[in-house]
Specification:
By secondary structure, this protein is of the alpha+beta class. Helix content is about 55%, strand content about 15%. It starts with a helix and ends in an 11-residue tail after the last helix. Its main location: cytoplasm.
């Protein structure tokens, strides 16, 4: 007679789990926005710092590379450092998302939108 209530109980559990997941994803978003990664090029002569979400926040250039004749080399080093920081940001995001999915008991390799 009350079989229908069992389905409602399952639905309530699913809704609670979805809300919990939404809260954890929001916390992850906040963490990624404040976690910093640093990319380097030229053996550390150029360093680019970005959030784990990929937003560039700082650029540090050793003054020894400033030579007008080396302009293209400097530009390449800057771009390489930025690219390295962005790659590290993507890796950090994937790592943190993987941790969250494992913590929540979701299948390995399940990509969550971040």
């Amino acid at each position: 007679m009350f079989k229908g209530l069992g389905g409602l109980g399952d639905m309530a559990k699913m809704m609670k789990a979805a809300q919990e997941m939404q809260g954890k994803m929001a916390a992850l978003q906040e963490t990624l926005a404040t976690t910093l990664v640093t990319g380097e090029s030229g053996a550390g002569l150029v360093k680019a710092t970005a959030t784990a979400k990929g937003t560039l926040t700082a650029l540090d250039i050793d003054p020894s590379i400033f030579n007008a004749e080396e302009k293209e080399v400097v530009e390449d080093l800057i771009l390489a450092a930025i690219k390295d920081a962005q790659e590290k940001a993507m890796e950090k995001t994937k790592e943190e998302t993987r941790k969250l999915t494992e913590e929540m008991g979701l299948p390995a390799g399940m990509d969550l939108p971040v």
